[in-house]
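Worked example 3. Consider a protein that binds 2-OXO-4-methylpentanoic acid.
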Amino acid sequence: MKIIAYGIRDDEKPYLDKWSEENPDVEVASTGELLDDSTVDQAKGADGVVTYQQKPYTASVLDKLGSFGIKYLSLRNVGVDNIDADAAKRNGIQVTNVPAYSPEAIAEFTVTQLMRLLRRTNTFDRKQANGDLRWAPDIADELNQMTVGVFATGRIGRAAMRIYKGFGAKVIAYDIYHNPELEKEGVYVDTPEELYAQSDVLSLHAPATKENEHMINDKTIAQMKDGVFILNPARGALVDTDALIRGLDSGKIGGAALDTYENEVGIFNTDFGSFDKIPDERLKNLMKRENVLVSPHIAFYTKRAARNMVYFAMDANKSLINTGKSDKLVEL
Ligand code: COI
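Given these inputs, the predicted complex is written out as structure tokens:
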């Protein structure tokens, strides 16, 4: 049996080597390159493909995998929004993901960024770099005095809720699916509008779907509290960036922490050499603001997550090849 792993970073390689040692019945090939039209031929002869990437899995790549007889594609990440589902289905390609490599990694980062926003650390860092060590006017807010609205209570949303509660915040949530434990605690509001109206902080943890594209827009921002803080470690597509910028300009939005961005493909996880060379004016507009924290999709990026992404995806792919089954199969 042969599995090829694409996009293997230096920090993932030791985990892949260890998995390979522990699974001598599997021939493991790997490349640092991402899976696309220019690299897909390297999969010829493999029984399964393991990969992760933020850029799309296109129809032409999936058609090629199909033509090589490859039926098993295992993603090392959670989100499956960048797969051409029709192409995967028509090629009979089964897809697995890793739904829980470390929900805590993303939750901890989200709250870290919120605390940075509330304590104005970006502003103080910038002032200090210029020798300005004064306090005023950058007085902070306290999380224990705030209501945090969590949009979507999957594993990551729930991990974030536990931390918010630890800080003493009031936590409310909206989701179409109600988690039974949270239901008992009475945290759910009935509509997104109620969540917007009551939250000082809005913490987004939903996967990207057709239905929720640009759910944060001019209309929904108008329904939020004045000075709301918006956190998006989930998917860039949830937020209409132009509306966000308008909300920040007017002061309606008090701050934002964006670990995802709607045009991040080809931009995040790239070294442009200088700020000026980043080829996206809207992103630079956001990055220049003291009350906006942009991070290049790094909330997931921890040692535990990297290990689990490799191990769980390789296990899932091997299981698919051996049995045609996996507990991580995704319905596309
Ligand atoms: C995911 O797991 O879906 C993420 O967003 C992180 C990733 C792009 C590695």
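Take a moment to read the result before moving on. The two ends are 26 Å apart (CA to CA). The pocket of 2-OXO-4-methylpentanoic acid is lined by residues 52, 54, 77-79, 297, 300 (CB under 6 Å).
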